[in-house]
Amino acid sequence: MQTDKYEYVGFWARVGATLIDTILMALVLFPLFTAIYGSGYWESPEPVQGPADFLLSWVLPAVVVIVFWVARQATPGKMLIKARIVDAETGESIGPGKAIGRYFAYLVSTLPLCLGYLWVAFDKRKQGWHDKLAGTVVVRRPWE
Hints:
The protein has about 140 residues and is mostly helical. It contains six helices and three strands, in the order E-H-H-H-E-H-H-H-E. It has helices spanning about 10-35, 50-70, 75-80, 95-110, 115-120, 130-135; strands at about 5-10, 85, 135-140. The chain has a three-stranded antiparallel beta sheet.
């Protein structure tokens, strides 16, 4: 990949993009949870309150994120900061297999106190562990 055409997107920009994505997802999901389970949903100690809860909390976000990565190379938050997820070797778009692998590699980045995400701040290519495992980088054109 020609590195002079792109800059690697750093930790804080990626945190901002993730916050945007989280807010957008919450704006969609919170009304759905309330409509399906009622206002008591928010007070329940149960981690999963039924099949719809599981589908909306775990399956839907995974599908939405993976579809955005494959179709647009970015989630809405990353699009707002002009960032794209690309193959680390070729700079080309990632396919469904690599996108699914990257999504599930988030678990590896999360488990040891989120160290895999913090790694972005110190890595020369700004790769988190999930990026390294999936063979991806997050880039943008320097002039954008």
